[in-house]
C-alpha cells in the first residue's frame, strides 16, 4: 500500500450576510433592483433609454446594496451597442450611397 496524504477540503465560504433575512431568520439574498430589470428590458426596446436607466440603476444599486449591478452594466453595454449600430450603420450606408437619402417631390 502507498502512503497517501489525507484529503483536505477547502474551507467553506459563506455568502456575505445581507440586511434582508429570509423567512426563517437566516441571512438571504438582497432583493433584485427593479430599475436594473427595467434597464435591461429598455436596452432592447429603446436602447438610449436602456443606457440612461442603466446608469441610474447602477448608482441606486451601489447606494442601496441591492443586487443587479451586472444587469445594469449589461443594459448599458447592450443599449450603447444597439444605439451605435442604429445610428452609425445607417449613416455610413447613406454616406456611401447605398441608401438614397435625396428628397424627391411628387409633383
From TrEMBL:
Keywords: Membrane, Transmembrane, Transmembrane helix. Residues 33-88 form the DUF4190 domain. The chain crosses the membrane at residues 32-58, 70-99. Residues 1-25 are annotated as: Disordered. InterPro entries: DUF4190 (IPR025241). Residues 9-25 have a biased composition (Low complexity). This is DUF4190 domain-containing protein. It comes from Curtobacterium citreum. The lineage of its organism: Bacteria, Bacillati, Actinomycetota, Actinomycetes, Micrococcales.
Amino acid at each position: 500500500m502507498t502512503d497517501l496524504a489525507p484529503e483536505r477540503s477547502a474551507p467553506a465560504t459563506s455568502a456575505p450576510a445581507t440586511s434582508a433575512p429570509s423567512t426563517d431568520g437566516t441571512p438571504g439574498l438582497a432583493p433584485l433592483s427593479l430599475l436594473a430589470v427595467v434597464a435591461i428590458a429598455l436596452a432592447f426596446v429603446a436602447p438610449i433609454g436602456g443606457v440612461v436607466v442603466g446608469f441610474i440603476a447602477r448608482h441606486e444599486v451601489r447606494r442601496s446594496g441591492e443586487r443587479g449591478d451586472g444587469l445594469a452594466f449589461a443594459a448599458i453595454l447592450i443599449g450603447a451597442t444597439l444605439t451605435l449600430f442604429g445610428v452609425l450603420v445607417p449613416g455610413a450606408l447613406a454616406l456611401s450611397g447605398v441608401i438614397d437619402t435625396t428628397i424627391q417631390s411628387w409633383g
